[in-house]
């Protein structure tokens, strides 16, 4: 294929085929309790609920969240937002991090926060 062939390449069919695909950027807090990590994945879209998004995994030893011998961490999608950087139907996916056994990892502070904030006595409070 020549350079001229590449310049004149018709990508319209490819573009039409991919209109139903979105990029979901999975985002989580790493082992520092301050830094954000992320990785992107192509999904069929549009997506309107976290329940439509599959869990994903990563090597927790590289983020300070798991020992080297058993380092798999599973990302559970919790909330989605329109991606302001990519636009279109692309989304940002806020995630909680769990062990493969389904236990929240120690840096998953949101796990206990959800338990506290969903308690009936807390729900009955009027913040201000």
From TrEMBL:
Ranges where the GS beta-grasp domain occurs: 22-102
Superkingdom as given in the UniProt entry: Eukaryota
Assigned keywords, A-Z: ATP-binding, Ligase, Nucleotide-binding
GO molecular function terms listed in the Swiss-Prot or TrEMBL record: ATP binding; glutamine synthetase activity
Matches recorded under PROSITE patterns: GLNA_1, GS_BETA_GRASP
Top-level class of the enzyme under EC nomenclature: ligase
Enzyme nomenclature, EC number: 6.3.1.2
Gene Ontology biological-process entries: glutamine biosynthetic process
Protein family per UniProt: Belongs to the glutamine synthetase family.
The protein, known as: glutamine synthetase
């Amino acid at each position: 294929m020549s350079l001229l062939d590449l310049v004149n390449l018709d990508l319209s069919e490819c573009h039409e085929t991919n209109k139903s695909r979105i990029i979901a950027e999975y985002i989580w807090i790493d082992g520092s309790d301050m830094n954000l990590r992320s990785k992107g994945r192509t999904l069929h879209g549009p997506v309107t609920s976290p329940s439509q998004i599959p869990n994903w995994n990563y090597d927790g030893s590289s983020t300070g969240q798991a020992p080297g011998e058993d380092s798999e961490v599973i990302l559970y999608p919790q909330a989605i937002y329109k991606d302001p950087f990519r636009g279109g139907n692309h989304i940002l996916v806020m995630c909680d991090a769990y062990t493969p056994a389904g236990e929240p990892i120690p840096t998953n502070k949101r796990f206990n926060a959800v338990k506290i904030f969903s308690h009936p006595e807390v729900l009955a409070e009027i913040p201000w």
